[in-house]
Amino acid sequence: MPNARASSICRNCNDNQHLSRNHVISCFNLHAFLNVPYVVPDPISFVLNSPPTKRPTPNSNKRYWKYIWS
Ligand SMILES: [Zn+2]
Question: Can you tell which superkingdom this protein's organism belongs to (predicted)?
């Protein structure tokens, strides 16, 4: 991970080796979890860079919640 220390321990498998992005992808089986094809080398960036699947929230809903929480 970008800000992980070299001595970080994986919470999934307690591996005390260098906690890398590739280890997290394989250890948590992120391709299956995020429903990304296995040919994609980095499923985290693939999901974050993909376009949104839902339409944006209407402005009336935003105004309603802004009014409720203010
Ligand atoms: Zn692990």
Answer: Eukaryota
